[in-house]
Amino acid sequence: MANNVDFNAVSLGRSRILGLGIHEPEEIIQSDDVFSELNTKDRFGVPHTLLRRTLGVVQRRVAPPDAKPSDLACPAARESLDQAALNAKDIDLLIFAGMNRDCIEPSTAHRVADRIGAKRAVCLDLSNACHGFMNGIHYANALIRVGDIRHALICTGENNWRIARRAFELCKATNDKSEFFKWCGGLSVGDAGASMVLGPREEMDGEGFESILMCSRSEYHNLCVVETDPLSEEVIIGGHMDMVSITREHVAIHRENFDFFINSLGWSSRDIDYFVHHQVGRRVFHMHSDYSGIPLDRFSDTFTKYGNITSATIPFNLYKIRQRVKSAIKVFISGSGSGLSTSQSGYVFA
To answer: DSSP for 163-189?
Structure first.
């Protein structure tokens, strides 16, 4: 392994996307309104436009306060099955890959399976912060590759605004500017549901995942922490979010692995029609563009209108791309999550 390459595993792609689905909550909250309500200008000298002008998130969608992750995942799951022209009973494996879950026990995957009618699916939750969906793809692809399963449904439902509500309370309660900046990153999140149905790749030169590279750097696990009451995952009691450091380290890992991985695909930067990445701010778009040489107009953007939708980001962007573009395209997918976890993958839409 070359000294400048840092990854844990590269898996061959043997699966393809049969269907995608999303769920967009109805309520929209503007970033300027959030900071205005906190009176950030008078209290901290921070303009009300900071989230919009500096971070880049103009608004986000917010689910009702009593909405569970499964409430966001189920509509997306049904749409992905419709796109795939499959019945829920055709699903062999159902993975719920959200950062948020309905409860500690049972798995949220079981709740989703029951509600959509996936009666014969093996169900499990696979949680890895914002990177969980990519881990779900990696796991399902491996089982499809060896022939253990034929169809997998990976879904997520992120009611992240509950984190933002707690961040808002903490920001409102303090007059310490450093304490405010410790939590204000939590105000950039939004709620969403997303789902993907995977099946076998029919031809190696046809539509599907080319390969998937996975990497973990656990020495950075303290950069982003959300602490919950041990008796209830619904009650957030503390934590911190060092978004500057976590973004810097994530991008450094992607930079180290990019040339190796894109060469392993037999691609060049010029071949990539869309770059899809985990989106936590406007600056990270430029950072990925700088090392990859891919112009910003090829970057898919949901952050501006939806905020950081955590594990739903990758499938949500893929859904939006396929709604706009029906022709054959190559997509480079760059996953990230606190821990740290990263992935890179290439997908060909035929």
So the answer is: HHHHHHHHHHH---HHHHHHHGGGGGB
